[in-house]
Amino acid sequence: MHNTKKVAKWEIKRNLKNKTFIIGMFLTPILIVGFMLLGDLFGGSDDDNQETTNVFINDQLAIFSELKQTVESANIPWDLQQTDLTEEEVSNALADTEDTAYLFLNEQNLNQGVVPAYTSEDIAPYFMDQVQVVTGPLQALQIQELGLTEDEKNTLTQGIQIKEITTEELQAQNQTTSETNPMERIVPGAFAGFIMLSIVFTGMAIFQSASQEKKDKIAEIILSSVTPADLMQGKILGYFVLGLLQAVLSISIVLPVVAWKFDLTILEYLLVPELFLYIGIAILGYLLFASIFVGVGATMADVSTAGNFQGMVMMLPFLPFIFIGPVLSDPNGLMAQIGTYIPFTSPGVLLLRLTNLEQWPWMEIGISLIILLLSVWFFMKLAGKIFKIGILMYGKNATPAEIWKWIRA
Amino acid sequence: MGTVLTVKDLGKAFKERKIISNISFEVNQGEIMAILGPNGAGKSTTIRNIMGIMYPDEGTITFHHRQGETIPRNKIGYLPEERGLYKNVNVMDILLYLAELKDYPLDRAKQRALTYLKKFDLEGKEKVNVEELSKGMGQKVQFIASIIHEPELLILDEPFSGLDPVSQELFKQEIYQLAKNGTSILLSSHQMNLVEEMADRLFMIHRGQKVIYGKMEDVKTEYANFKCTIRGFNNKAALEQLPDINRLEQEGDQSILYLNKDVHPAKWLQQLPADLQIQELTIDRVSLHEIFIDIATDRNLLQEEGDVYA
Q1: Where is the ABC transporter domain (chain B) (predicted)?
Q2: Which of A113, A200, B178, B291 has its CA 20 to 30 A from that of A75?
Q3: Which residue segment(s) compose the domain that A320 sits in?
Q4: CATH number, domain at A63?
């Protein structure tokens, strides 16, 4: 452990003195912020161009001003106008128009309870939802005409709702008062995901570092002072700290921007007990990939001469991305469960699932964590074997057959 | 003068092929012990086994004045045959890192680094990036790295390869100095003239087996017989008639007569016939270089000498 720390310290110092590394470290969060603001730029212009619908109302109930008020207060992009057009003339008027609708409000329709809305061929996709707002004032008018007392009116307008209360909500109600805010899970989950990505990506530099050691032919000198295990662990530890540094730096730049832009009190959501589990998962994920990278790095003379095998291994951290779609659409579905049990995807998939699930499948989490722990242990052992021999094979790439031989040795 | 390192019956095989077998030697305090042998003889393998970079299949390696089974890495300095330095770090940083790995106090390491840099004509280079050093400068830095922590045992695998004569001399003097101050030195090299000059004892290895092991002087008296080089056109048959000739090589006007072991040079010279054409005549001992080449090319000059040391 003594030597491990020395190696780790060296790796940290060496990288922090390297201009390329420092620039990269600052560039990452700046790029994130940049893309966020860039997206905002396009998103903003989208809002401006949101199409307004021309809604013409043939109003025989003298309710237009009330409707206009309702529409404005609901923030619906309608251009409300009165019209004298009859239902017979409507089809002609609608021909060759876009985003136009005609509503006919009269006694007959009110009594029947059905208001016809004629629309042009092109119409905003949410028009039929939006148009429901006019039912409010109409219903009020209907009730008024019945001449009921105030109490009777209120009872009627209140309507009847059916409220769903599941058992765990019942329990939750007993324990805490408000547990419904999804932010409480999403924010720490996203935070842990970000930490994991940062350290895994910084961890990919391990592999660079291991193969560089071969290229510079310094491995044998180092190994005359420390054991291969110390050297390997030192690298893993060193790049872990570098990854954390990267994460802290990124977060301290990105978080204020996010907080300002989305107007969130993020810290409140962030500091919840779940965060510890998330970060634990993130660290396990890092250890898994770091041990794979350090092992693979030791088999390569040079990044540019990496074989297919090595290239494929390098893609492993991107595997969870395959699961993002299926997991989001069904966090308890088959794909999600499969992803939870594959060690390479489980950190990512677990984080994704836990932030999306109301109720945590503790059984699956437990099994998945055990699989993850075992894989970390297994790949560390494996990497140790590969590293010990590979790091001294100067100027040569190892073939998968050779690597297999070392593992069996 | 105690023994620092004992290697006993060392053997190592890769797959079915034996790389080295039955290698036994000792390194004493304050001596320069040389391991010689042609390429692929097993020198570096032997050294890597001593350093714990490889693990021997058989035999033992004992570090004296040392309890326990582990290799006293802090007390050993090692300059491997294939060596390099981290790029894009400065000279002082890398020297201090390597000293730190040996648990050597950093302030003293810094002092020593500066002293040695000055000694090796690298004064003021401590802040220079390793990438900017020439190959020779890099070698010097590596050499400093291997001795910065005042090792008890210094293992140098081909320390002179790629050095110009000036730097070679510098290294040679430094190695002498270290040995004089009590450091035990295990030196592997191809440069026979240097080894002949420097080593107190030598171990010659060929195809993973011991060929010669002993003190330099003993080896020389034992193996390095006299040879007489004559320039001038002479009949080969006539020369072969001379007494005490072990072997004769003739090329153009030059004849080399390898003499038998117990020849007395002055007496032998008296027996030379008067009609011999002599433009030039030298008589000297066969050099280590020639013994080495003989072994490496399997000419077995030594065969006739029997297995006195082998």
Answers
A1: 5-232
A2: A113
A3: 181-408
A4: 3.40.190.10
Q: Which of B51, B76, B84 sits opposite A216 (nearest CB)?
A: B84
Whether residue A96 lies inside any domain: the answer is yes
What pLDDT sits at residue B93? 92
Q: Which of B80, B86, B101 sits opposite A216 (nearest CB)?
A: B86
DSSP notation for A37-67 = HHHHHHHHHHHHTPPPEEEEEEESSS-HHHH
Do the Cβ atoms of A224 and B86 come within 8 Å? no
Count of structural domains within chain A: 2
Of all residues in chain A, the one with the smallest CA distance to B149 is A225
User: Which of A14, A18, A224 has the CB atom closest to B73's CB atom?
Assistant: A224
In a domain, A113, yes or no: yes
Note the pLDDT of residue B92: 93
What is the structure's pLDDT at B55? 83
Q: Are A179 and A172 in contact (CB under 8 A)?
A: yes
Q: What is the pLDDT of residue A57?
A: 85
Pair (A251, A153) in one structural domain: no
DSSP at B75: G
Structure tokens at A36: 């966020």
The structure tokens 């050597």 sit at B104
Cα–Cα distance for residue pair A202/A137, rounded to 1 Å: 60
Half-sphere exposure of B70 (CA within 13 A, CB side): 8
Chain B 47-66, residues with CB within 8 Å of chain A CB atoms: 48, 51-53
| Partner B, chain A 189-228, Cβ-Cβ below 8 Å | 212, 216-218, 220-227
The domain defined by B3-220 carries CATH number 3.40.50.300: yes
Boundary-marking domain end, from A159, A192, A212: A159
Q: Per-residue confidence at B309, pLDDT binned at 50, 70, 90?
A: very low
Domain-located, residue A38: no
Residue ranges of chain A with per-residue pLDDT less than 70: 39-51, 157, 159, 163-185, 263-267, 302-307, 395
Domain regions of chain B by residue span:
3-220, 225-285
Distances (CA, A) of A38 to A23, A28, A32, A256, A262: 21, 15, 10, 17, 15
Burial (CB < 10 A; 0-12, 13-18, 19+), residue A44, is exposed
Q: Let me know whether A375 and A267 are in one domain.
A: yes
Q: What pLDDT is stored for residue B19 in this prediction?
A: 86
Q: Is residue A117 part of a domain?
A: yes
Q: Are B188 and B44 in contact (CB under 8 A)?
A: yes
- Asked if B145 reaches chain A (Cβ–Cβ under 8 Å), the answer is yes
> What whole-number distance in Å separates Cα of residue A88 and Cα of residue B76?
104
